[in-house]
Amino acid sequence: MRIVSFECEGKNRIGLKVGDEVIDVSIAAKELPQDLLGLLQSNLDVQKELNTLIEHCPQEAKRSSKDLRFTSLIQHPPKIICIGRNYAAHAVEGGVEPPTYPEIFLRCAESLIGHEEPIIRPRCSDKLDYEGEIAAIIGKKARHVKEQDGLDYIAGYALFNDATIRDYQRKSSQWTIGKNFDGTGAFGPEFVTADELPAGMDGVQLQTRLNGEVMQNASTSDFIFPMAKLIEILSECMTLLPGDVIITGTPAGVGYVRKPPVFMKPGDVVEVEAKGLGILRNTIEDE
Q: Which among 49, 76, 138, 157 is least surrounded, fewest beta carbons within 10 Å?
């Protein structure tokens, strides 16, 4: 099952993607929660409800996905938890040993944008770097979960571009400021339920392209901390809630380690792709 978030008539809406069409839930099922976070937090059997919607969808609720103005899949997640250096080769290219415990930082909701929305290069820096990643979205409350049960708590997955202002990332020992500029966290294009994808997204190829050139291309088999292990580690510390987003790390090939460095500039087009999750595409604009 695939769900998109989009804006129509000044309101955020969700749609169920079926082929090239999107069923506008605000028209087809007004009684359902009208955003992805609401769906995840509800006590409804979401898949059953949405399957029923497909069977009895009125024609006026159908939209072409090509005509939509996409927004961030979840506007205000309870938490956005990011994992640094979770691909072994990326740790090595950055000049460090692969970590023995995840490097964890947080993003703010204000940084989020959707598919086809512009990533913003801020006035204060020209060192805007790409980081293609896979996002795991929590579906039920999790605390003190064992690794073998970790995947039971993931509702689905999406793509993410953890675009980073590199010079600001290094202004302090904590990475937070370089990861939270407005308009730098692209999240989309679709929320795909876990049942449609390989367990834990294991063995999936993740690719990032800049203006058509492949910059990152790696398998999630290179994860240091696989999805289920991340749920165990994080839930030891904090309660994970429905709608929490875990950004699981970027592979080798980021721009700042290249010689010469490659940073994104206005007019560039960056794409993140993984089998089963589609293509997350964004252009770059100056603030």
A: 76
